[in-house]
Amino acid sequence: MTDVTTPAVDEATDKSAGESAAHLGSAERVLRRDDSSAVLRLSEAEAAVLAGDPDDPPTGDAGDQRMILNMGPSHPSTHGVLRLMLEMEGETVLRSKPVIGYLHTGMEKTAEDLTYLQGPTNVTRMDYAAPLFSELAFSLAVEQLLGIDVPPRATWIRMLMCELNRVASHLLFQATNGMDLGAVSMMIYGWREREEVLRFFEKVTGLRMNHNYIRPGGVAADLPDGWRDDVRRLLELIPPRLDEYDDLLTGQPIFRERLQGVGVMTPAEALALSATGPILRSTGYAWDLRRDQPYLAYHEVEFDVIVGTHGDSFDRFAIRLNEIRESLRIVEQILDLMPNGDFRTQDKKVTPPPRARIDESMEALIHHFKIFTEGFHVPEGETYAAVESPRGELGCYLVSDGGPKPYRMHIRGPSFVNLQTLPHLMEGGLIADGVAVVSSVDPIMGEVDR
Amino acid sequence: MTAVDTLVLAVDPLLSGDLDPGIVGIVLLKVMVAFTLLLVSVMLMIWFERKLVADMHNRIGPAVAGPFGILQTLADGIKLFFKEDLIPDRSDRVVFKLAPYLSLVPAFLVFAIVPIGGDFSSGDGVVTWFGERTYLQVADPPVGVLFFLALSSIAVYGVMLAGWSSGSKYPLLGSVRASAQMISYEAALGLAIATVFLTSGSLSTHDIVASQVTGNWNVLTTGVVPFLVFLVAGTAELNRPPFDLVEAEQELVGGFHTEYSSLRFALFFLAEFMNVITMSAIAVTLFLGGPAGPILTDTLGWVWPVVWFGLKVFAFLFCFVWLRATLPRLRYDQLMDLGWKVLIPVALGWFLLIGAMGVADDRGWPVVLVVLVGMAVMAGGAALLIGAVSKARAERLADAFPEYDDSPTPGGLL
């Protein structure tokens, strides 16, 4: 970090008058402060004064080259509506500050007004690139509170769908990462393969995203006829395409130059910032909830936890690419191990009766009516259920007061937590590195803002 | 023909005699044809690029306007023409309005010196129209290729001033990148072209083409390396991927033209694609023999050179689009490294080597010995350069990370 001894905004101070001078005074102090932190601690008002100054960057003294650049919330490479406030010297990013909240829709608060059965509809809209994981975390939390077990087939269907969703999500990462680095073809290729996975999802859940498929007590519907053929087709289709990605990107000298050694993080830093998922694993720290806190039936399948060595953007790229391969390996095992049986629990208090039963049974009619009007009651208590989403640890903290709706729901969104690594990864890099870093952290703003 | 004539009007046989209305008419016709040809080919180029990139992406691309969407560019142009013309409050209005023309006019003018036809293999590149003998190029100034270099330098101003006058930060970053990038790559470009001067012995594009008639294209006589340097530097000069840092969409939104809209934006767009075509045409002229090629029929024999020229240019255009579809973008510092530490030294070294071979040829020295000595000297120079660069890098690293320890990362740290 360069030592800032020259007045940063002197000329601007001379020109401003009245109340903005007061703001500017503090903004000037912020820029002058010899701050070794990577995080730009600048209030909105101070930033507005600095960013709004027509002569910014001021052209006064030599060495007076700093400017505040607002990247986003509407920018081609900030992945949704992330806004980055960058303190730049030329093209070098000195400090930065991610600003979030542009996609805030109050989903956590909304959850308090929805029954437990309606809950997945709500949470599925958080991480829209990997919606099944939010549904899974919510459903696991509700099931823990209810103290019910889901049938084995439901568990395995959940695993199958989640691993395929991980594939789709990582393919989307491959697409956007390529695009952010200027390899625009990669964007289309990644989407093309993701589309194949989504097509299977559509067949199973009826929707391409926001599935509302994994629900407390099981899954919404059994797998359709011929699902094995569809999955086998995916297993044959995707691996050769991944090899093509290797040809196009992994060995490509420009691509390597752009990513290797960019946005480096040590395991200690990653842990201190609570980073999880590919970001933590890229530093060489092998932490994967599927292996370290097994849920569903992950202890019965074989897979490797992919770790990096350098903690740079290239490792994060390579980890995600190889995690697709590992996920497909899991899917292949699921094809053999998929048990028969119910796809949702037979607990009549949780699972609505089939339509035909309503005509025959008074009990069924009452259950149906109760579940869809009032909702089922969940015993008082609190719980936390975490799953390994494509972006890291996705947890659902749920408090029940014994009623049919959650008293409080909180999602630990990996994108949100990982976002705070951004200033540390971007520090000292060029603006182009910043783009590569944001891309490699792969935040989904729906999950960040919730 | 007086000396002044040679200087100003060059050697086009059309202008060697007295001027009469017919000659003026032919000159005007040539200007019109070149102008229209360029505009139409830009239209087709944009369509071709979109269609080809779409093919490489497994997409369809433009398909609605006209057959195969071939009128898409026309539709886009009309749309842009009728869009609201915005000038940012903070912009420098005069410069902001001037900049697109600074980009566009040089793009047009460069094409004037490109010979697009003429029978070079059996004749001297002259065609006979309406009883007048003339070259198939708008002008053949003796400064020839220097004219091209000068105009491409002027085009830098268009991009630079556009970004600077916009009064906004992303365009400013784009214009800083533009000035640095285009100026540094112009050096490599110039050195690669200088090698051609050595082998062809002339600056005039007509003479350069004429010197390549026997199939001894400059790409071979200069030893391929200048051709490759020219291609890389030319791509950078055009701001085409993977060197499109000036308008890097993912970093700088639109780069220098972020604040431009309507017709002014269209002019930049036009200039950019026109530059792609003229750069390909210049590459063909300098290294691939221009319109040289077999004349297959006796009737309408003058058409064949034009066809060969078109095919050669098309091959370049295809490569430019191919590059765009395949490669990621370089980073700013990597681009500068490539320009200053690789392309310029290589082009300069090769230029000196070719020069030494020429001198050896003149004096009757053994060429092989000269080349070997030259190679040795250059290897020494390269070693010095690499040593200096790596030493500087090591010192910078030591300054930046005094406590840096390059022992392998301790795996059992946590």
Q: What brief labels describe this structure?
A:
heterodimer, A: 450 residues, mainly alpha, 3-stranded antiparallel beta sheet, 20 helices, disordered N terminus, B: 414 residues, 2 domains, two-stranded antiparallel ribbon, 2 strands, 64% helix, globular, disordered C terminus
Instruction: Give the beta-strand count of chain A.
Output: 8
Biggest sheet of chain A: strands, sense, closure?
Answer: 3 strands, antiparallel
What is the tally of helical segments of chain A? 20
The low-confidence runs of chain B, each spanning 5 or more residues with pLDDT under 50, are: 1-10, 407-414
Lateral strand order in the biggest sheet of chain A: 1-2-3
Q: How many angstroms does the end-to-end distance of chain B come to?
A: 86 Å
- Compute the gyration radius of chain A: what is it? 25 Å
Annotation field: number of helices of chain B: 14
Helix content of chain B: 55-70%
Describe this structure in words.
The complex is a heterodimer of chains A (450) and B (414). By secondary structure, chain A is mainly α. Helix content of chain A is 49%, strand content 11%. In chain A, the strands form 3 sheets. A 3-stranded antiparallel sheet of chain A has the order 1-2-3. In chain A, a hairpin with a 2-residue loop joins strand 4 (214-215) and strand 5. In chain A, helix 7 (152-180) runs antiparallel to helix 8 (184-205), helix 7 packs antiparallel against helix 19 (431-441) and helix 8 (184-205) runs antiparallel to helix 9. The two termini of chain A are 35 Å apart. In chain A, 51% of the residues are buried. The model of chain A is unreliable at 1-30 and 54-63 (pLDDT under 50). By secondary structure, chain B is mainly alpha-helical. Chain B folds into 2 domains: 87-330, no CATH class; 349-414, no CATH class. Helices cover 64% and strands 2% of the residues of chain B. Chain B is built from 14 helices and 2 strands. A two-stranded antiparallel sheet of chain B has the order 1-2. In chain B, strand 1 (126-129) and strand 2 form a beta hairpin. The longest helix of chain B has 36 residues, at 21-56. Chain B is globular and about 70 Å long. In chain B, 42% of the residues are buried. The model of chain B is unreliable at 1-10 and 407-414 (pLDDT under 50). Chains A and B meet through helix 7, helix 8, helix 10, helix 11 and helix 19 of A and helix 6, helix 10, helix 12 and helix 13 of B.
